[in-house]
Amino acid sequence: MIFRGATKLTAIFALAGALAMPGAAALAQGAGIGAAGELVDPDVLRVCADPSNMPFTDQSGQGFENKLAEFVAAKTGRKSVSYTWFPMVTGFVRQTLRANRCDIIMGYAQGDEQVQNTNAYYRSSYVLMYKKGGGLDGVETIEDPRLADKRIGVVMSTPPASNMARANLMKKAKVYELMVDTRFTDSAAEMMIKDIASGEIDAAVVWGPMGGYYAAKSGADLAVVPLTKEKTGSRMSYRITMGVRPSDQEWKRTLNRLIKDNQAEINKILLGYGVPLIDEQDKPITQ
Known about the structure:
This protein has eight helices and 14 strands. It is of the alpha/beta class and 287 residues long. The radius of gyration is 19 Å and the shape is elongated.
């Protein structure tokens, strides 16, 4: 329902029918209701999610976190996936995970104290988008002098806005709202891509999973450049985890094993949605 900046920072996914791995039931053992005081359902993967937040989740199950949830359910021996829908706004964790209405948030930025993070299952960054062949080919940083006289789109209150201010790019910038109700209007990433196509802006900076997905969907010939070479200002890259309750230690261990054993399959889901994946050395992951 909203654009997620540094929370999804909270990317959120085409292995929907993946088969359960051998021993999946054993993997799930101990994570059931009452086990070690945990309230995790052993039969149903109960997911906390935003009902209208593509490409992460939506009620029709088309987001990459929806597909990832189906994958996790199969791998942990769950019979089905159910959702507690709630817009990802203030109170999301309190009204869903902490209220024991669901057991997992499929994508959550590492280090947020509202949840217990699993190990990261992907790392991505904000990206710079522009038309190929439009004079910006080869630009890889916000500080590049070729951007000095350009009008750049940026979402308010996100890390790139701070870096753009340091580079004196905000005077001509077009600023997009952070909170957008996508039931009634396009996401910030969609609006940016339309504005690049029309010439309203020359380039845009947006969270990578959103930029990559909507750029591919648009069919436009756009460069989508991960901002991994910034030398000053706010960091542009973030690790994304699954979020569980602090009390659910065995559930976290189960998910950590799943991530470790199935990273290639997880990457395939994410790459299928255009998510720009980078490793710990900021090198692109392409398979």
